[in-house]
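Hey, can you fold this one?
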Amino acid sequence: MKTLFITLLILSSLLLSQQDTLTILHLNDTHSCLAPSAPRTTLLEGTTGGISRAASVIGLTKMTEQNVLTLHAGDLFVGDLMFNFYFGVPELQLLQELGVDAIAVGNHEFDLTPSTLIGALQTAFPSLDKRIPLLSANAIMEDTSVTALKNYVQPYTIKEFGKIKVGIFGMTTTETNTYSLPSPVFIDTNIFICAATMVETLKLNGCNVVIMLSHLGRFYDEAMAQNIPGINIIVGGHDHYTTESPVVIDNSYGGKTWFVQADAFYSRVGKMKIGVEGENVSLLDYQSILLDGNIPEEPTVKAVVDQLTTGLETTLSWKVFTEKIGEATEDFNEVAVLSQPGRFDTPVGNLVSDAFRDVTKTQIAIQLGGSTAQKLYKGPIVVADVFRMIGYGFNEVNGLGYRLATFNITGAELWKGFEICLATAEYNDEMLPQVSGMEYSFDLNLPAYSRLRWIKINGVDIGFNGTYTATANEFFIAALPLFGVEISNLSLMTETTELQVVVSYIAAHSPISPSQEGRVTTKVNEDEKILPDEFQLKQNYPNPFNPETVISWQLAVSSFVTLKVFDVLGNEVATLVNEEQQAGNHSIKFDATNNRQLSTNSLPSGVYFYRLQANGKYLTKSMLLLK
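Sure. Predicted structure:
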C-alpha cells in the first residue's frame, strides 16, 4: 500500500509539472492620474490610487512569481492636469520602467489629434528598440502624415514564457471616430471581422494563449467572446468596470472566455493566474487589488511623481495639489444608475451646472454625464480633485480644460437635442444631460427619439417657440452641429474654463454638501407601467444573429400593429409589420439581407433597435447583427 501511495504521488507530481502557469497583471483607463487621489488627509495627501502604489504591486509580483505579463487596456491620455502639461510622456516612461508588455490604443489617445500622440511616443521612446507596443488591430493608418505612428502602433504582439506562447491583439472603440479627433487615422467599424482575423493569425503563429486587449467596453467584449472562437481572455477597458472575479462567457462553439477589467484611475490592479497545458487554458486564481492605504507607494516612482507635481505647480503658479480650496461634507457621486426608476440628477452634475449658471446668469446650464469623470470625495478639496471630477478637457490658451460658452436655443431645438441624448440612455449615462435652472422627465420604455415626457424651465413648461439663454462647455457646443441642433448668439468665454468657475464656486460656498433634487426623473407610478402579460415584446432569438433572427410579441387585445427596425442613429431600416392583428402571440423572421424587408441595402454589422407599437403603446429592444 505504501509503495502504491508513493507511485501515485510521483505520477501526480509529473502531471502537475506538465502545466505551466502565467500571471497576468492588468490596468486600464488610468487617464494620467499619476498622483494619489482623495480622500485626502489633513496634510492634503491622497490616500488611494496613484501609479506608485501600482508600481508596488507590479514590482512585488515580478519578484515573487515567474512568467508575469503586464497589460494596459488603454486610455492613458486626458483626465488629469498631469496630462495637460506633460502630454502622457512621464506615464509612458514610468510604465516602460515597470515592465508593461503592451498597451491598447484608447479613444482618448486621439483627443488631441494623432500628431499629439505621435509627439508623446517619440519623446517617451526615442529608441524604437525600447518602447512598449501599442496595439490596435482596427486602427487604419494609411495617410502619409501618420506614417510615424505605424512605428509604435501594431495589430498584435507575441510574448513567450517557456512553453507558453501568448498572442495579444488590441481593439479600439469605434466611438473614437465620433467623439475624438483621430483623422486621418480611421478606426475600422468591422470589429468582429478584425478580431476573428487576429485570432486566426495568432493561432497560425503557434500561440496557445490568445488575449484580446480591448478598449471596446463590456457590451462588445461579451459579444466578441460569445461569437468568436479562440479568445481565451479579454482584458477590457473603456467603461471603467470592475471585475471582482473573472466573468466567464461561454461561446456558441463550446469554448469559454474570461473577461476582466480593473476599474480606472489607478484605483485597482487586476491579477489573474492561469494554467496552460498545450492548448488548454484554466483559471487558477484572480484578485482585484484595491490600491488603498494598505498598499505602500514605491519610493522611486513616488519621488518622480512628486517632482512632476512640483514642476506643474511652478509652471502654473497655482498650488493645484498642495493648497486646500474647500471642504465637502460627504462624497459627491457622479454616475447616474439608470436601471431603476427614480432621480437621475447627480450631485456632481448639480454642482457643476449650478457653478456654470452662477457665473453666466443664463436661464439654464447643461453638462453631459460623460463630461464628468470622478466623484468628489468627502473632506479637503484641492484644485486637482476638481479637474479630475470634471474630466477630459483641454484648450490651447491656458491648458486648464474646456472653456465655457453661452448661447441661445429655442424650446424646439432644446427638446430635439435632449431626445438625441436620451436615445442611448439605457446603455449608460454618458449622454444624459445634467442641468441647472430646469427639470425634465423621460421614459426608457418609449422608443428612442420619443422618450421625453416634459421639460420645465425654472418651473414653467417649456415653450417650443420660446428662446432660452444657456451655458455649457465648448465640447458640448462642438457636438451640437453633428446632431443637427441649431443655436444662436454663441459667445465663447475665451479665457474662462469650467475648472476655474467650479473651483471659485466651491471656494465661495464651502463647506459644500451633495444634493439630488429630482431635476432629472423618469416615471415611477405603478399604474403607468406596462404589464408584461398584457403587452410584451420579447428579445429576438438568436441574438447576436447572422443574417436571420425571430422577433416575437404578445398582444392582450386586437389592435393595429407596427414593428420597425432602426439603426443606432435612429434611421428606419425596415418595416416588418404594419397591419391589424388579433390578441395573442405573434412572431416574424427578420432577414438582414432581405431586400423586400429592408428600406436600404444589406445591413452591416452593428447594434439595431426594433420598436413595437400597438394600441397607443410602444416597446423597444436592441439586437446585434454580426457578420
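The chain has three domains: 18-290, 323-523, 530-625. Let me know if you want another pass with a different chain boundary.
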